[in-house]
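Form 7-S
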Amino acid sequence: MITLGVLNDAPGIRHGFFTRQGGVSTGLFASLNCGYGSADATENVARNRAIATARLDLPPDRLVTCHQVHSAEVVTVERVWRREDAPRADALVTSLPGIALGILAADCAPILLADAEASVIGAAHGGWRGALSGVVDATVAAMTVLGAVRSRIRGAIGPCIAQRSYEVGPEFPSAFLAQDAANAGFFAPSRRERHFMFDLGGYIERRLHGLGVGEVQRAPHDTVAEEDRFFSYRRACHRGEGDYGRGLAAIAIAE
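Output:
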């Protein structure tokens, strides 16, 4: 489990970005696969989630996740729900103690947020589509409805695909440049003509700073390159593998 100092110092907040290590799954899903969306055995995923939530000193039934669809939809969590009742969304916020907000990722950026003074937390799934359409903006706005203050919010961007591993095609930058010409800074030339290397984590960090979030920290990892530590959708695609595991990131207010 990886933690970041920006949230380690937040009183009453527990968080973790879980690696792929320490679980019960095998094969492509070895070993801490927490994604029911994979073809892994359901009982393995359930056991892995229990292992992860135990690291946060919570029982497995206190973890809530959503059916992620690369959107900017945010759900305010007022109770835990069954897996089959998970809403279609890409971010969760709550002010309730003892509930872990979980995000699943395999190259996309998991984003954990907290205003410890207000006891308000948020978690967001930062794929490029959701990031571009404003998932972090919507998450921070939903936190303020619960009493959070933007300047007090601390944000942690977990392990994700690094710029050196994220090649995109010639059509990709246009939507980002239409939003803000300064976004050109998140694209570096690729070795392939008319292709680029995209800095997803840097883009999300800038969005958070632009919202007035007080502190932001990024994990210095590359989910594609660090195979022993992280699941990766892109790596699986490059190898022609039929499926891939999902890593969990979670945050909770201590009871």
